[in-house]
Amino acid sequence: MNTRTSNLILTVVLTTLIGLIVTISYSYAPNRILKLLGGEMPHGVIQLVTYFFFIFGILETIRLQRNVDFQKKGLNMSLLPEKEQFVISADEVNDIKLKMVDMEKTNPYLIVDIIKKACTKFRSNKSVSEALSIVNAQTDINLRNSDTEQNLIKYFAWACQSVGLVGTVIGIGSSLGAANQISSQEGIDYVTSLLAVAFDSTLMALALSIILMYAYSLVSEKIDKLHSDNQTYVIENLINRIYAK
Fold this sequence. Notes:
- The protein is mainly α.
- About 80% of the residues lie in helices and about 0% in strands.
- The protein has one domain (about 5-240).
- The chain contains seven helices and no strands.
- The two termini are about 50 Å apart.
């Protein structure tokens, strides 16, 4: 079972648990806060759907953060010579490549893959400029792959807001349908309660989407910096040090 599937199962469990707690609490002690959180059923279904997208998005964000933390370890392993004025010969480039091939079997770091491909390119035609082009190209590929992986979180943030708007439309539509009851105080209370439900769903959706987008923005910035650091490290400690006769 992969991490995304595990996150989906955990999201379903947490959403169900939150729904039960809020609904049961509201049935025993109805108040404005619990109603806002979706305690009044069946209107609270909109909030539950919002919770689902929010929790799944947060779990995916945490997964990406863990991946960034894992990839950062590769930068701290001193895979390349870092001493000033150090020069790498063509034979040493091949040794570095063989070292990366062995390391890749147990340490699937992006930095290892970039170094290996740069060394392979240099060994094929002894061109430092083409080795540099491979580093840049692979960094772009890694960035595109990361962007693709982040699209799901962007969708969850959008879905949170959209579900809230759907709840608002449903609530306003229901209140308009009950407009003929405003001749009595009970009818007025009923219509206003429907409007409250409509705006509650939007309020919760906007609040959760803001939190999700903030968390995602922090991780996205770290991902971009990771790829930039990988590229800089290889250029400074491999490409710029190669001595080609």
